[in-house]
Amino acid sequence: MAVDTSNFDIDAPRWDQSTFVGRLKHFFNITDPRTAVVSEKELDNAKQLVQLCRAGSAPPGTSIEQLHYAKKLYDSAFHPDTGDKMNLIGRMSFQVPGGMAITGFMLQFYRTVPAVVLWQWVNQSFNALVNYTNRNAASPITPKQIGVAYVTATSTALATAVGLNLYTKKAPPLIARWVPFVAVAAANCVNIPMMRQQEVLNGIAVTDENNNKLGYSKKAAAKGISQVVLSRIAMAAPGMILLPILMERLETFPFMKKIRFLHAPLQILLVGGFLIFMVPVACSLFPQKCSMAVCSLEPELRDSIVNKYGDKVQYVYFNKGL
């Protein structure tokens, strides 16, 4: 079916982003792990097609399905603020393959301190890159701030994991299996705010519903970052809480004792099963284009908006990141 580019808005959401179900369909689409193996050339072609469609000059004969697929690739690989191609490891489409391997090893090798240190360090390195990649790019961060954020988050995860690992030596085995999740949750509470500290310190850019810039808000930044922290913890929770219970039961069977060398691959596959669903679910908990009432903003920004627009602007909008 040929597309009338004069009537087709490629940036219009295919699903209603004001509802959880609509956001879930959207994020199932752009976090599809298959897009992580698409070639660079195909990604660049998708970006070019999206830009041509925005300009109202899509090639003759282009179908709606082709445009939807191009937008899917574009949203999965290019930053929503800058339009720049994101690094592969930091993309949400890489969360399933990357997260399942790291989380599987964290859950399998939780008994010894060296293993705990190694896999928590690997996980926090991965998380730091993801958090940096998916930040609100309107608030730049310096290399020094990135380094401080990385060291702080990694230290938090290691201190939590090692401390709990030693503390739970005499606890029931299941309690020890939950230590990696506690460490991951604690580190997320540090890693994300630290990696996005410029937003907290200087505020995040807020706009009206027509994307007209209104100023910068620290309160909006705090709201957006807190929602991302909750989303990331929710993303990890089912796999890291339920899977240890499952493995604890499975390992009591004689056949499982005979195939101990397969326990790690099995956990990796099971974590992948959880993440395929939990990555889009967690991303869908809150709208990516977050809103905030003008009356809830800082007095200076609120007064500036009211003085300029009166009561015409009731809410401000901003990209909370992922």
UniProtKB/TrEMBL annotation:
MF-aspect GO terms: monoatomic ion transmembrane transporter activity
Any one GO biological process: serine import into mitochondrion
Domain of life, per lineage: Eukaryota
Lyase recorded as keyword: no
Cellular component aspect of the GO annotation: mitochondrial inner membrane
InterPro entries: Mtc (IPR004686)
Keywords on record: Amino-acid transport, Membrane, Mitochondrion, Transmembrane, Transmembrane helix, Transport
Location in or out of the cell: Mitochondrion membrane
Membrane topology field: Multi-pass membrane protein
Transmembrane segment boundaries: 229-247, 268-287
Pfam families registered for this protein in UniProt: SFXNs
Family per similarity comment: Belongs to the sideroflexin family.
Protein name per its UniProtKB record: Sidoreflexin
Species in which this protein is naturally found: Leptobrachium leishanense (Leishan spiny toad)
